[in-house]
Design brief:
Mean pLDDT: 85
Strand order of the largest sheet: 2-1-3-4-5
Low-confidence stretches: 120-132
Helix content: 25-40%
Number of strands: 15
Largest sheet: 5 strands, parallel
CATH topology of the largest domain: Rossmann fold
CATH superfamily of the largest domain: Response regulator
Radius of gyration: 20 Å
CATH architecture of the largest domain: 3-Layer(aba) Sandwich
Length: 245
């Protein structure tokens, strides 16, 4: 299956060079180019590419800021003039990064990584376009907390916790804060996977290890990371119906 791509870079010559190099790979189709982050965001929403080749340092809005504005993430390959130590400082788990000027031999490695990814088939893509507001567990999101950044598949997130106007995201050993309310997250998450346990918590149903009766008709959930979350009495009724307890 051919993979579609967009190149986002403020340097025209850099875009042209990368496009020329990618033309040698028949399974990569470059749909469009953008010269800044805002153009890139518009093209991503419009064309829904599998992959973006994204420059980091751009005027007005950089590559990381672009990613923060996306609800759904394509696969990201960074292209940058910075050395690898600058990239590592951001702790970003993008599929790859390419240092400019791009070495054709190095690009081969990136293409091989892309070829190893199982992209969604046409049926799933159609489903996604009909339900753009709902994020499935297979969707990847960009999480930024200070200078630390992560690409996280929703299936990896075990818990969201309300902290004022922010939400704490629990995945692996990380617990970054994002500027999102729990209500806004609940509207975007697939209810078959993520369950609103109480006013302060949304849990990933597939990350629950133990369920116990709790005070006043509620339930106590033990999550894979060791967290214990109370399910309110009202939500306990819904939980039992959903899980057929």
């Amino acid at each position: 299956m051919k993979k579609t791509a967009i190149i986002i870079d403020d340097e025209r010559l850099a875009r042209a060079e990368l496009k020329k190099m990618l033309s040698e790979y028949p399974d990569i189709e470059v749909l469009a180019e953008a010269s800044n982050a805002n153009e890139g965001i518009e093209l991503i929403h419009q064309l829904d590419p599998n992959v973006i080749f994204l420059d980091i340092q751009m005027p007005e809005k950089n590559g990381f800021e672009l990613l923060q504005e996306l609800d759904r993430l394509p696969i990201v390959v960074f292209t940058t003039a910075h050395d690898e130590f600058a990239i590592k400082a951001f702790e970003v788990s993008a599929i790859d990064y390419l240092l400019k000027p791009i070495d054709p031999n190095r690009l081969v490695d990136t293409i091989q990584k892309l070829q190893g990814i199982a992209f969604k088939d046409e049926e799933v893509d159609v489903f996604k376009k009909e339900n753009r507001n709902i994020l499935s567990e297979s969707d990847q999101v960009f999480v930024k907390d200070g200078e630390k950044c992560w690409f996280v598949t929703l299936a990896e997130i075990r818990l969201f916790e309300s902290v004022g106007n922010y939400a704490r995201v629990f995945f692996a050993n990380n617990k970054p804060l994002i500027l999102k309310s729990l209500n806004s997250l609940e509207e975007r998450l697939d209810a078959k996977t993520f369950f609103r346990a109480n006013r302060k918590h949304i849990v990933n149903l597939k990350m629950i290890e133990k369920v116990e009766p709790f005070f006043n008709g509620g339930l106590l959930l033990e999550i894979k990371g060791g967290e214990k979350i109370e399910v309110s009495r009202r939500q306990a009724v819904r939980f039992k119906e959903m899980m057929s307890l």
